Amino acid sequence: MTTLTVKDLLPEDGTRGTLVGRVWLPQANGPAVVAVRGDGVFDVTAKFPTVSALCEEDNPAKALAATKGERIGDLEAIVANTPPDQRDPKKPWLLAPVDLQTLKAAGVTFAISMLERVIEERAKGNPASAEAIRKEVTRLIGDDLSKLKPGSDKAMHLKQVLIDQNAWSQYLEVGIGPDAEVFTKAPTLSSVGTGMDAGLHPKSTWNNPEPELVLFVSSRGTIVGGALGNDVNLRDFEGRSALLLSKAKDNNASCSIGPLLRLFDDSFTLDDARKLDISLNVKGQDGFVLDGHSSISMISRDPTDLVEQTIGKVHQYPDGFVLFLGTMFAPVKDRDAPGQGFTHKRDDIVTISAPQLGKLVNRMRTSDECEPWTFGIGALMKNLAQRKLI
């Protein structure tokens, strides 16, 4: 991992927005909720013990602006101290900007990625079979379903046509059917942030990054802000069986969120989030470069619809939740042999960026090589109690 700078972190408009992060404080042996401002990083944990608690405010951005906090240092120094290979454990470093919220993810929310999920299923996790199947699937259902509203009469008609042609798939069911796919991505507090290693299951041989917008949602179902996310995906595991989704998605360090939470205010709104263009860059030690993007404006289901399908009378989240919105990015560029497509190699540097949200940078390692996750909910509660913050 190369040294990170503030340029590798902040949105294009710098600290104009309401930016929230979490920082590990060695002197407290625990995390701090921080406000990132033009004149430094300020610990606001005395007012908001968790990011979840801040998000529960009626107006989180206004509440944070009214909280002065205690300055703990310059953002530049904290960012530079975050990568594990260069970290001084006696100095603060960045964490993922999420704590007690449940980590949820929506899948198959873009037409392009939906087609790739169908291909994975038919290839049964074998990348060598994917290209031929891709051509056949495209011949049957086309490659542009972006104007098809999930659950509509037109979508249900297409569903019946595909069933009649024996071309139906469980991925098409959640892609154009009335019910969205929403699953639990990883355990609470297990996310890694920018500058950290992100994890791949050591047995996976076909995998990819998934650049996504992550919404922060209160226990009342109010969307209060957003961050970037990498919903690391194992195409071989899920392709073999959809019942392996939990193994494909939930591994040590496989959930990356950051670099900061940007709360909604006059400078950044839900409508701005709906128009986000998210860029992806992968650089390998072998000289390989992959670029891609995902445009939220092309999502098949509105973000509010996905949130409403996640929380309500049938499911509650007392500490709120974050929701990965899915991606339209599906890598097909060959990395090695023709027809083999893309898969990660050790030490790939993945950068996910959006002008309004900054950059989320991770180095790819196998999950057993990444820093172990040891600080859970019990440890957080004990630490906050010892510091007399709860």
UniProtKB/TrEMBL annotation:
InterPro entries: FAH (IPR051121), Fumarylacetoacetase-like_C (IPR011234), Fumarylacetoacetase_C_sf (IPR036663)
Gene3D superfamilies in UniProt: Fumarylacetoacetase-like, C-terminal domain (3.90.850.10)
Domain Fumarylacetoacetase-like C-terminal: 222-364
Entry keyword annotation includes Flavoprotein: no
One GO term (biological process): small molecule metabolic process
GO molecular function, one term: metal ion binding
Superkingdom of the source species: Bacteria
Keyword set, alphabetical order: Hydrolase, Metal-binding
Similarity comment text for this entry: Belongs to the FAH family.
UniProt name for this protein: Fumarylacetoacetate hydrolase
Organism: Bradyrhizobium canariense
Top-level taxonomy: Bacteria, Pseudomonadati, Pseudomonadota, Alphaproteobacteria, Hyphomicrobiales
